[in-house]
């Protein structure tokens, strides 16, 4: 793509930026610029540009507001000790957006163009990438997204589509650091079913999880666990994270995909665990196997993973009328987490070729 750049005439000053980067939180502060490119049937993708970050002006009849034709990605940029800036497997995010685009009846943005758009925004706003050292494992969170921007009320694929990238400095996803999260098992709500949009990264999947997540918080839990929609027996995922179960013979099980999101952190852990000598099995895992496994000691660890949270250990599981104890260990969980984070921040050899240099 040919990308034009218009510099922000009033960027955040250095003193304020230092305050933000010292305690960025998650998703609350945004960089000085944003990337935009638009699509129409006649012109294809056109007018790729980086402009000052600011509000969008949308007609009340903009299609996305009514029919939720939207998809997005989540990824991070990391500053290494030598000052260089890298992203983690951006081509995988690009390929997943292609799959999501097919499911949402969007035009496809080619993976090379996706990566270029992200790279260019990171270069322009590189001063916003925090140092990765110290507490919180700071990074620059990147949010590419695509939405139906046509002004039209009618149920059909939009004839005007906008793709954008925004960026936000990020600290730890969970407040209080890495510690086991308590989970609430929802037996009323499901996240996705066969033939649905569960494998696409689209906002509707997350919207449907909110009432169950609210229920989890009301029950004193951190996150909600969803079961399959067909039988209500098999563990699928959390509201925004994939899951892993470590058994006492050393092998690891993760729920098979199809109706769940194929997380990039998830697939990376499969490869990383293999290098650590662990067999990873992708299969259905029943909720009774979870409950009985942690009680008997057959399941020794459980952890969840995602771009924002990286890897977090899972503690107890609660449901209406019962509770399963926390697994006995977090040893492998923390080992995998540290190995992954060390690759991302350049503290360990990238034997997989996952890191992509931007600056």
TrEMBL record:
List keywords of the entry alphabetically.
Answer: Amino-acid biosynthesis, Aminotransferase, Branched-chain amino acid biosynthesis, Pyridoxal phosphate, Transferase
Q: Which cofactor does it need?
A: pyridoxal 5'-phosphate
The enzyme's E.C. designation = 2.6.1.42
Q: What catalytic reaction does the record list?
A: L-valine + 2-oxoglutarate = 3-methyl-2-oxobutanoate + L-glutamate; L-isoleucine + 2-oxoglutarate = (S)-3-methyl-2-oxopentanoate + L-glutamate; L-leucine + 2-oxoglutarate = 4-methyl-2-oxopentanoate + L-glutamate
Q: Which Gene3D superfamilies match?
A: 3.30.470.10, D-amino Acid Aminotransferase, subunit A, domain 2
Q: What domain of life is recorded for the organism?
A: Bacteria
Q: Which GO terms describe its molecular function?
A: L-isoleucine-2-oxoglutarate transaminase activity; L-leucine-2-oxoglutarate transaminase activity; L-valine-2-oxoglutarate transaminase activity
Give residue numbers for the modification (N6-(pyridoxal phosphate)lysine): 201
BP GO annotations: isoleucine biosynthetic process; L-leucine biosynthetic process; L-valine biosynthetic process
| InterPro entries listed in its UniProt record | Aminotrans_IV (IPR001544), Aminotrans_IV_CS (IPR018300), Aminotransferase-like (IPR036038), B_amino_transII (IPR005786), BCAT-like_C (IPR043132), BCAT-like_N (IPR043131), BCAT_family (IPR033939)
Q: What pathway does the UniProt record associate with this protein?
A: Amino-acid biosynthesis; L-leucine biosynthesis; L-leucine from 3-methyl-2-oxobutanoate: step 4/4; Amino-acid biosynthesis; L-isoleucine biosynthesis; L-isoleucine from 2-oxobutanoate: step 4/4; Amino-acid biosynthesis; L-valine biosynthesis; L-valine from pyruvate: step 4/4
Pfam families under this entry?
Aminotran_4
What EC class does the entry list? transferase
Question: Which PROSITE patterns does UniProt cross-reference here?
Answer: AA_TRANSFER_CLASS_4
Which NCBIfam families does its entry note? ilvE_II, PRK13357.1
Q: State the name under which the record lists this protein.
A: Branched-chain-amino-acid aminotransferase
In its UniProt entry, the species of origin is given as: Nocardioides guangzhouensis
